[in-house]
């Protein structure tokens, strides 16, 4: 995709460009799944820090992300 190459041009180095591309892909996947990327990333990082088991990684994917209801008490 030409837009990605253009945006990644100023990433600083190859590793920075790869990290930027991974984050851009994650944000795009969230948007396609109808998930707020900021909420998803913060919730997922918190789950990982709290010891979410690697065997249940599928639960942390954007398409499996269930945002808590605003009506929850």
Describe the structure.
By secondary structure, the chain is mainly α. It has one domain (2-64). Helices cover 53% and strands 0% of the residues. It has 3 helices and no strands. The chain has helices at 2-8, 14-32, 37-49. The longest helix has 19 residues, at 14-32. The chain is globular.
Notable features of this structure?
globular, 0% strand, single chain, 3 helices, mainly alpha, 53% helix, 73 residues
Summarize the structure.
The chain is built from 3 helices and no strands.
Portion in strands? under 5%
Count of alpha/pi helices: 3
Helix content: 40-55%
Query: What do the pLDDT scores average to?
Result: 81
Element-by-element helix/strand order: HHH
Shape: globular
Instruction: Give the biggest beta sheet.
Output: none
Distance between the termini: 44 Å
Number of strands: 0
Are there runs of 5+ residues with pLDDT below 50, and where? none
Give me the Rg, rounded.
15 Å
Q: Total domains, how many?
A: 1
Look at the helices and sheets and give the structural class: mainly alpha
Task: Indicate the topology.
Elements (H helix, E strand, L loop, with lengths): L1 H7 L5 H19 L4 H13 L24
